[in-house]
Amino acid sequence: MNSTRTQSGFTLIELMISVAIVAILAAIALPAYNSYITKSNLKSAEADLVALSLNLENYYQKQLVYPVSTASGVTQIQCVLLGSPSPCTSPTSGWQPSQASNFSYSISATATTYTVTATGTGASVSGCTLTLDQGNNRSLASCSPYSSWL
């Protein structure tokens, strides 16, 4: 009786080639994915600033002045928009940012002007600063490779 054993499985070379192919694909896909995430975060922050600006314009239409205040943080901004007194800690309604985990927001306003700012705090947008004012002037700073609103 002649019994031969057939071997099945992969050789070490085949496995190493497979791992190398996966590594090459990951090296190509990861930067593209990170760029997509950064761009997505910036677009959301831009939308948040536009929504905040619309809230300020709505306030202006009702009061004929912008809320004279400098505020940072979502709660304080909401208080300003609602015209709440200074010790406001939990507003019942108002502007709610979608990117609160990746950006910190602030308002600087006089009776006739305002500037709203989003400063990146998340990993992919750290240091990015987006601004919007009452004249719809928009700027983006310190956010390579982007140099203007998307």
From TrEMBL:
Pfam family, one: N_methyl
Gene Ontology cellular-component annotations: type II protein secretion system complex
Gene3D superfamilies with a match to the protein in the record: Glycoprotein, Type 4 Pilin
Matches recorded under InterPro entries: Bac_GSPG_pilin (IPR000983), N_methyl_site (IPR012902), PilE-like (IPR031982), Pilin-like (IPR045584)
SUPFAM superfamilies recorded: Pili subunits (SSF54523)
UniProt KW keywords: Membrane, Methylation, Transmembrane, Transmembrane helix
Domain of life per record: Bacteria
Transmembrane segments: 12-33
Biological process terms in GO annotation: protein secretion by the type II secretion system; type IV pilus assembly
This protein's name: Prepilin-type N-terminal cleavage/methylation domain-containing protein
Organism: Pseudomonas gingeri
